[in-house]
Amino acid sequence: MPDDPIGAPAEDGAIEELLREERSFPPPESFRSQALVSDRHLYDEADQDWEGFWAAQAAQLEWMEPWKSVCEWELPFAKWFTGGKLNVSANCLDRQVAAGIGKRVAYYWEGEPGDRRTITYGELLEEVERFAGVLYSLGVRKGDRVAIYMPMIPELPVAMLACARIGAAHSVVFGGFSADALSGRINDAEAKVLVTADGGWRRGAVVPLKANVDLALDQTPSIQHTVVVQRVGEKANPGGGLVPMREGRDHWYHDLMSPSPARRGPEPMDSEDLLYLLYTSGTTAKPKGIMHTTGGYLTQVTYTHRYVFDLHPETDVYWCAADIGWVTGHSYIVYGPLANGATSVIYEGTPDYPDKDRWWEIVERYKVSILYAAPTAIRTFMKWGTSYPEGRDLSSLRLLGSVGEPINPEAWVWYWQVIGGGRCPVVDTWWQTETGGIMISPLPGVTTCKPGSATFPLPGMGAEVVDDQGKKVERGGGYLTLTRPWPGMLRGIYGDPERYRETYWSRFPGRYFAGDGAKVDEDGYLWLLGRIDDVMNVSGHRVSTTEVESALVDHPSVAEAAVVGMNDPLTGQAVIAFVTPKAGASRDSAHGEVLRQHVVEKIGPIARPKAIIFTDDLPKTRSGKIMRRLLRDVAEGRHLGDTTTLADPAVVEEIRERAMQSPAEE
Ligand code: WT7
């Protein structure tokens, strides 16, 4: 694999020097003096009275009826703020308008082609009230599920909030997923309505969302209606004209929204009513529908968004550069920021379109003060060198965040120095789709950081590293576990309570097992080491090895496949596939490309194997289990460990030769 020279630092070697000399980074003094938290009081409050602490956070929200108990915990099932009633859209919108900030900007939206919209809280409320009326008129009721498959346009948060208003759970499917992935998720949730768009823009090309929808809906009996936002127009249809609409099933968003539909007010919801489902990859081929409920979830995302990002809603301009199709966008573009009355930026496209300056142009235009991004993006910018932020005014930035995978110290220091100018704390935030919100992170103003460490559990959270036996590790490596329930925790896997217990609560009794390796250093700092299960992390997104293997063997030419994640300097991990073709099937690089494309069709572009290595055999134990560890060693060019349990040790040698000769690489 090519040796990618990333991280070519600032010419003068300043970053190497920082890495060498300075092992830890206290919050800059200029930041500390204005910070929301400048001593340890939040930690102390949570330590002294844990339930009281969470009750105080929940009390920041507006409740229609007060809760009776803070937390009911019957391992592994938690209920938070039971008896309480509230509505998430009312907390995000009506409450802000009633408080007199209806004219504040909720979203500065920027499309990839350069079109822009500014949407105030008042305008967002009106749009959501009306779209809730539209959904209602299409038969959506409290307790139903609505699927959403959209690009990053304002109608996406509108659709989510409209569902929350009615009390229907949304299931957002990332716009990069394929028709197959979409239909699987729709069927698991038995969604009644799908909200989508004709297409979206990505690197100047159209993502054909409606065409994918048409394929997916051939297999989804539960869908009665679709609502289609016209984002792209005629360019979305290679056949000419607008995208085809099916009579009786498909409706244009703009038609349903005018003349003005009857507005709908917020439905009072139980604290434990389902707010949304979000599907994530596990160790089997079938994605898990992670369930998040109402009161606890909103409490956690509101609290964490405020304190982790040191949010001053009157003055900050906050930009989370994730896609709303992932949990990061749910919690930190939609629900947390709106519940806090923040002003956010939403950008539709990629950082390199129309040129590599796009992000910094956006920061300059909107005077972004808080930027939340993924390590893979940061490493990409490092690769482009300093000429891109150069010439742009980034002086509005005062806080930087990172999420999705471990951030390597070089990237951390580059972010701090080149983007933050040394005056912005960097918060490395560890959490998961399952946790709903941030769990482990520095508290800006308080925590002294070490580049590459997510530091400590936030006030109210409990995290510990344990060994194989489940014993707490004081210093050294092990498995990351969470020791107590938390308000935003997943309430289960949709339709499969047993899988929930088995996946998260069976490995270490009494503890939630996150699936990550971690270590504790001599000062008690936590360092995340990546997944220890068969789940890869590609650009901060979870991809299951089994899911990619199933997609490969689904192709008629493939007999068997084994997939491993290989360390990749840019994306964290890259997907590498070892494929045994059926007799007579082609094994040239053109066929490798066919198989890669097949994976894209089954799952989506994030799962596309970087390399496909054809082999007559896979290394197996005598009991027939594929030894992925050896394949990972082969992919990464490492010395092979113990091969004595192999049925046929010669197989690895053969694979190794093939991997060196002709990987069908992109
Ligand atoms: C997995 C969760 C949370 C939103 C994005 C991903 C990895 C996440 C960090 C971090 C080290 C991290 C873990 C985790 N991860 N943040 N700051 N440092 N690793 O959500 O798809 O549910 O993935 O992402 O491995 O288990 P997700």
The CATH topology annotation of the domain at 88-103 and 114-267 and 311-330 reads as Rossmann fold
Radius of gyration: 25 Å
Give the uncertain stretches in residue-range form.
1-10, 662-666
Put simply, the count of helices is 20
Task: Going across the biggest sheet, name each strand in turn.
Answer: 5-4-17-16-18-19-20
- Total strands: the figure is 30
The CA-CA distance between the termini, in Å, is: 11 Å
What small-molecule ligands were found? 5'-O-[(S)-butoxy(hydroxy)phosphoryl]adenosine
Quickly give the CATH architecture of the domain at 88-103 and 114-267 and 311-330.
3-Layer(aba) Sandwich
Strand content: 15-25%
- Shape descriptor reads globular
CATH superfamily of the domain at 88-103 and 114-267 and 311-330: ANL, N-terminal domain
Return the average pLDDT rounded to an integer. 93
The biggest beta sheet, please?
7 strands, mixed
CATH uppermost class of the domain at 88-103 and 114-267 and 311-330: Alpha Beta
Task: Give the structural class.
Answer: alpha/beta
The level of helicity is 25-40%
Give the structure's gist in a few sentences.
With 666 residues, this protein is of the alpha/beta class.
